[in-house]
Structure formats: C-alpha cells, structure tokens
Fold this protein.
Amino acid sequence: MSPVQLALLVLLLPLASAALIALFLRRQGTLASFVSVGACTALAVAALMLSFGESRFTAGMEWLKLDALTISLGFKFDDLAALMLAIVAVVGLCVHVFSLGYMHDDGARSRYFAGLSIFMFSMIGIVLADNLFMMFIFWELVGFSSYLLINHYLHRQAPADASKKAFIVNRVGDLGFLLGILWCYWSLGTVSLDGIAKAAQGGMAIRAGIPLLLFCGAVGKSAQMPLHVWLPDAMEGPTPVSALIHAATMVAAGIYMLCRIEPLFAAAPAVALNTVMWVGTITAVYAALCAITQSDIKKVLAYSTLSQLGYMVAAFGLGSLREQQEAAGVTISVMLSAGVGAAMFHLMTHACFKALLFLGSGSVIAGCHHEQDIFKMGGLAGRMKLTFAAFTIGVAAIIGFPMLSGFFSKDAILYLAFEKNRAVFVILGATAVLTALYMVRMWRLVFLGKPRSHEAEHAHESGVSMVLPLIVLAVLSVVAGQWALDLKSFEAVFLHVPEAHGSAHVTVFAVSLAVMIVGALLAWVIYKPATQDSLAMKTPGLFGGLALLKAAPDDTYNYYVTKVQQRFAMLLNGLEQIFLAGVVIRGLAGFVGLIGMGARALHVGSIHAYVYWFLLGVVLVWGFAAGIF
Amino acid sequence: MNSVDLLLLSIATPLAVALVIALGLPKRFSIKLAYLGFGVPALISLYLWSQYSVAPQLDGYAFRSTYDTGLRSLGIQLSLGLNGISLPLFAMAGIVGLAAGLYAIQSGAERLKIYLMLLLVMQGGLMGVFASIDVFFFYFFHELALIPTFIMVGIWGGRDRSYAAMKMTIYLTVGAMLSLIGLIALYVNSPAQSFDLIELRRVLAVNPHPLSALAQNHLFALLMFGFGILVSLWPLHTWAPLGYGAAPSSAAMLHAGVLKKFGLYGLIQIALPLLPEGASHWSWALAMLALGNVVVVGIVTMAQRDLKQMVGYSSVMHMGYAFLGLASLSAIGVNGVVLMMVAHGYSAALLFLLSTSVYHRTQTFDMSEMGGLAMKAPVLAALFVAATFASIGLPGFANFWGELAIFVAVWKFSPWVALGAVAGIVISAIYGLRAAARVFFGPATEEFSKTAEKTPVIDLRWSERFPALVLLAALFFVGFWPKSISTALDATVKSVFHVSPAAAPSSVAQK
C-alpha cells in the first residue's frame, strides 16, 4: 500500500465506522462500540506507520471546479502533520478504549461512538489538509462532532445549552476565518499551504489583516479570549470527550492551524504576531486565575486547558528567534521558527498530560458515582491507587516538575519569552505559579485527607479498560519531553524548539523551578481538606474578586444573548410585522386594485375568481395567436 | 427509447394522472396511480441526469424536442431540452416532487383525492418549468404550478389560511405580472421576434448589445423585481413565511423547495445573460436588498416561536445568498447560485416535512411548548438535526458548496458585502440550533408532557421516514460529490455568460 493510500485509509476508516453505526447499529450499543474502537485501533496503527515512516508527501485531487475556483481534496504530509497525526491517533485510541469502560452502561452508546468516529474523521482531515478550504471544511466538521458529543446527555438542559453555545461561538470565530481565507484567495491567488508559503517567502506584500482574520478561527476553536466562554460549559459532555476534544486535540487545532500558515505571519507586519502573542498571554493568566475558584474537578481542568492553550498561542506569537549554532567548528547564525517549535512541543506534551488528567478525573468521577465536586471527595489515594499514581504524574507534568514532559516544553516557551519579550516572560512565569497552585490544590483535595462524602467513602478503582489508557498516557507524560525531541521523524518541527544556553539557561531554569515550588507551597499552606474553599473562608474579598473575574465574561455573554440580541431580533420582528405587513402590503393591494377588473376580484378576496380570469386570459391569448378571432 | 420523449413524458405523466383522478377515479386507484404520477418524473429525471454527459447536444441543450402548438405566428413553440443549469434543477424537481407526493399520500388529508390531484398538477408544471427552452412555456408552466398552491393553502391550510392565501396570491400575482410585462417587453424590443431562449440568446447576447443601456436597465428592473417578489426578495418577502406557515406541508415543500426557484432560474437563464448592462447597473441595489434578506430577515428568524414560520423565514434568508451570487455578476457566483438552489430545494423541503412530523407529535408549532422530543423520537430528532445542519451550510451537505462559491464570488464583488454575507453563517447557526434545542433537547415542557400523555408519541414511521431519507440522501450525495452537478453546470455557465462583458470574473467591479 502506498503512503497516500494509507493516509486515505486513515482518513476514511472512522468515516466508514460512523456511517456503519448510524445506518445499522443504532440499537446494538456493544457492537457499535467495538466497531468504533476497532476502526480507531486500525487507524492508529496506520497513522503511526505513516508518522514514523520514511515518506513525506503531498497529493491531491480536484473536488470541485467552478470557473476559476478550484477546491481540492489534498494531503500535505510533512513532519508537522506527522507529529499532529501521531498525537491525534495515540490520544484518540486511549480515549476510545477508556470509553469502553466509562460509557459501558450508557443507553445511547451507539450515538456516542458514532460521534467519536465522526470526530476522528474530521480531526484527521484538518491534520492532513493541504489547503485552507479543505481545512475549513473539516474545521466545521469538528465543530459539529463537538456539538454532537457535548449534547450527549439529551434529556438535560445544560448540555443542550452548552452544545449550542459551543457551536455558535465557534462560528463567530469561523466568520473571521472564512473571510481570511477569501481574502487570502483573492490577494495571493491560492489557498494551498505550499502556495501560501511560496508567495509569502517570495517577498509578496501581505496585509496584516489576512493572518489576523485567519487567527480568528484559532481564537474560536482554541478558546482564546474573548471567545473562550464556550469551553468551560462544554464540560457538560461525557468526560472522555472532554479529554479528547476539549483538551488534547480539537482545541489544539487552532494552534496547529497557526503553525500551518506561519509564513503568512512571518511575512506580514509585526502587528499580527504581537496581537497573537498578547491574546495568548492574557488568556493564559486570566484562565489560571479563574481556575483557582472552581470546585468542579472538570471545570478546574477546563480552565487549566484554556490557560495552557494560551501558553501555546503566546509561544507562537513570540515568533522566530536568531540563534548561534556551531557546525563543524564554525559558528553560524540561524533563524529558528521558534514560535512554531515551542508551540507544537507544548501542544504535544500538553496533549499527553491533559488527556491523562481528564481521563484520570473521569476515573475519579466514575469511582465516586458521578460526584464532581472536589470538596466532596478526599482520601481517594488509598481507594484508587492506580488512578492516584497516574493522576499524580499528570499533575507533576503540568506544573513543570523537572525531567517530566511539561517541564521541557514550558521551559522552551519561557526561554523564548525571556529572549523576545520580558513582559510576557513575567506574566507567563506568574501564570506558572498559579498553575502549580490550582493543580496542587485540586490534587490534595481529591486524593489526600479523609473522605468528605458518602460517595468518596465508597469509591472504587476503575476497570482495566479505563486504567490501561491512564498508564499509557502516564508513561507518555513522563517521556514525551526531552526524549521526543530526538525523534528523527519530527525533526523539521523539533529543530525549531528553542533551547536555552549559558546564563539564560540558568535563569530560566531557576525561575521555572522557583515558580513551581512557590505555587505548590502556597496551595499546601492555603488549602486544608475541608468541605469548603479555604481561600474563600480566609480572604473572602480576594476570592470574590476572582469569582467576579471568572463570571464577568459569562455574564456579558448572557446579557448580550438575552438582553441585546434577542430583544433586537424581537424589535426587528415587530417592525417587520407592523411596517411590512401593514403598510407595504396595503400599498401593494392598492396598486393591484388600480390595475383593473381582474385584479379587483383579487382585492375583494376570491381566489377562484383569479383562477377563472387567468384561464380566460390564456384562452384569449391562445385563440388570438392561433388566428381564431 | 428515444430520450426526446422522456422530457415530455415527465411533464405529461403527472398531468395525465391528475386528469384521470379529476374524472372520478375511485380513491383506492387514485392513490395507486398517484405513485406513478410522482414516481415517473423522479425516475426520468434521475435517468436523464446520468445520461446528460453522454447525450448529444444541440445549441448547448441535450434531449431537445420541439412541438408546434399553433402559436408559431408569435414565435412560441413548446421547445424542450436541458442544459447544465436546468439539469440539476430538473432532477431536484423530480426528487423533491417524489418526496412531497409520498408524504402527501401518507398524510391522510381530508379530500385526499383532490389534494393529490392538485399536487400532481403542480408537479407537472414544475417539471415543465425546468424543461422548457421557450420563455412563454417556461412562464406558462410556472403559472400552472402556482395556481394549485393558492388553492391548497386556501383549503388545506392551517392557522390564518384565508389571510395567508390572499396575501400570497396578491404578492405572487404582482410578481408574476411584473415579470410577464418584462418578458413581453423583452420580446417586443428584441429583434428576435421569438420567445425561444436559444434564438433570443443568439440575437441579444452579442457585443455590442442591440438594446440601449437605458432599455436594458428598465427591462432588467422589471425582471429583477418581478422575479424578485416570487423569490421573496427583501422587503417584498412577507408573503413567504406567512404562506409557508399556513400551507399544507407537501405544498410548502414543492413551493419553497422547487417553485420558488423559478424566479432565480429566470434571472439566470434570461435576465443576466441577455441584459448584461442592465445587470451591472442594478447589481449594487440587488446586493443591498439581498443583504436585507441575509441579515435583517436572518435576525427576524431568531425571534420566531412558530417552528414552521421559522423554517419559512430561514428559507427567505437563504434566498439572500442566491441574490448575492447573482449580484456578483461572475461565473463563480452564478455557479454557486445554482448549487445553492438545488441544495436549498432539498433541505427546505426536508425541513418542512419534518416540521409537520414534529407537529403531529406535539400538536403545536409553538416551540416554547415543546422540548425533550429527542428522547421519544430519536430518528425524527436525528433527521431534523441533520436537516438543520444542512440548511446552515455544514460541509458534507450540498448547501455548503453553494454558500462557499457565493462567498468567494461576493468577496471579489466587494469585501464589505462579503462581511455581511458571511455573517449569515453565525445568524443561521443561532436560529437553527436554537430551534433544534427547543424542540428536541432538554427536559420536556409541561405542555408537551400533557400532550404526550394524551396521545403517546411514536418515532417517525417508515412512510414519513422514507421521503425524508430520499431528500437527505440527495443532500449527502451532492455534498460529497459536487462534481455530479458542477461539471455540466460550469460548462453551461461559462458558455452562456462568455459574451457578456460583466460575466468574466476578472472584470468585475474593480475599484
């Protein structure tokens, strides 16, 4: 099988699985779950063969051609795509297997697994796409699968609202994305990734508006401020979905897309990159502050995801770095696409440890009989030993414990910020303190101390299908750091990961170690195992302020939807009914009335009369033309 | 079999069946025969669709035939044929007609025989509209299909049916009259002395144009506003939501899905290629009115509580995209409009069908009295959600291609207009998903729980499911394989628009 065929297989397998389940297996939940997991296993094997294989290729076929507009279905499989494909395949497989256990008793398993398969199809489409139109197509499709899966628990109101919100907010971002694609198409004459790179590197003048509009798509999908409001709500979906879609892969698609079109940013005025950098930085620190006040285990992780996505976006926005490299005894200065390298590196490590944390939380939730409040947990370390061990590794990785994966990728970003922009460096460093604070807080409240509720007392370890993915992801969270950078397969990406040298190295290392320790100690000092938030008890003012900070965008959003948008719609509707129906139709009716007898019949109100007049007219015209009269 | 006869057969079969039913056939046989009346055009249209690429063409049309009707002195002949523009619409008319017919047969409407008879007349007219090359018969078939609509709304309609029927009649008559005046004026002014579209094209679509710019402007205005009313151009659209809200579902399916496309079809085949200077004169005005459809009507759609009215408004909104594509005066745009028309035909018909099925389970169209229907009728919910996503332009469904091509064309026309147009993807997501959530998801409302106690809710029956699946299959088919339409379409659009200076994308509205 040629690599192109293999890629096609990877793309189409999950689609086939979804179609099969939707058409024939609606009532056979068990069979449906095996079909979906089987398809995912096969695609993961094929995807890893591709990613770690030798061949890198582009291939394409014409999908639609209308005059000058050609939309093609094509693959661009370079190291960047290979890396992303490997991440999606591995995390996807873990989540599929985990779902076997987690969703075992769910009545609508068929729908759930069909949804997972559609998601895999859509996500792989984004990864392989060789042009922006195709990327947009699959971009919309992941939004759809996300909608479907958030809304899994149909009978409840909250998921219905959350899924709607997620799709609509994403479409707001897509509005900009699509306009950006159109602008790109007409100003560069191409939307293919290779074409864009060629045009941008060929010295073509590029308006900053194009990359900025395209960035809107990433703001929506990767939940950056101010379009972040949908992600915390999306936690209404089943927990494995949160792990796969709303933590590891889909929300990272925005960062991946940015990396795909990096030449556009490099060629555009610096304002584009600076905007990206600040949006990411602000999101990172803002979401970390919000995470501190959350009491729902999934909400803490959701805000943490927002914050980490902010890191990645900020890293991308920091841009390229000039670095001295020694080759054969000669020191040469090379330009690194350090933003891409650091962002993708952190994307990879984050995918591992955040999927681990979410699946771990799923295991905890299942163990505690669907209790999600961390203040009603406690003492789970002894009751769920494997989950505890895996979760602890995840926590250590995200707060940047030395030698774990998160440590290396966060260091790369901090170093890049240190070299390029000290303000961003300070903010991201402070964010790291907060990260350690809220993660250790959660970890301690969930696992240590005594059980604080009936559910936690009777917690039990999860089954093998749920624990196995945790172990795999825990191993990856440990090794995906420095070790991954040496992988030959993704050389073209990881070559650009910035590595600190000399004094900068010492500074960054010291800072990242210090912030982690400070954050963890703060958490240890502030939070006691209790049924209430210790911070809220000790400093209600500070806690209230943070809660307000968290609530402000949500309130604004709700105010806009209910008070502004809906009222405006009602107003226009009222005007429509009064003005158009009342005035214009009366005027038209008057106009008709003037036309003559036949029309007067209409005005009087008989349809039959109209029909007769019409028939008479036809007969007359026909007769006249045929020469009868 | 000689394929020439097939077009005539597709028009004549439903009409003949209608005639036989009218002559007093017993109900049992009437229904059996109605299957034939709806099935034959659908099968013929599918067959012709598959044969088009290999069929011999004459003057850009395949399956040509001409019949003398005694009106030759006026330059009128019944001239049939299909080109790349009419082919997908003809096929769409056949398939949507089949779905509407099947849905009507199972509906158990009162006086079912007359209902079916009227639908069959409509079906015959619809097939004729898209098969006619002669402008007179093109118009004639439209009227043939239009009159049953009024009667069906008046007799089988729901709430406010007499007001709705009246309003529809007045608006559509004015629209039809204006466009008729425009067509006659075109006939009188053109040196062709013929209603034959091929002849008209030969004489008019040349450089320099035989008509003065002023004459073209006037003629185009008549056609634009005349056809525009028929297609619910803002602000002349208010008949549509009201009329569709009241219309029985099969009539709404056929009108909103198929018959409404007559106006756009007329603009594409007649007004734009034959009056290029008139078209470029009016393009900005048309674009502005079309934005009214997309943005203003789109926002109004959000405020609807009545499910069927909401579907009606959304259909009006989507016509705005079509007008925008036309206003862009480019081959990409016109291609997009035809794709959009085809897709919208399927998706609007599907939504009207499913809305009625929802009504049969909730006993109301008021969305604030529904909720939680998905738990009781999962198949209905799945189909409705699919139809909603199709209509809001999700990739994978046919509608997406039309919208995308139109957006591309409109950006070239004016990026600011494109901003308004693309805003439609957010607006449509808001009203579409809101409706889906209110009807199907979350807990059931009190009102619906009471209704469900009285009459147990059952999921979609196969007699309802089959026509819905036919429409959904068509949406998927074109969505995954747009070339099944676009290859022939693009060839025709390029040949029809190649002479007009405004048509080439390179010369559009450069600033």
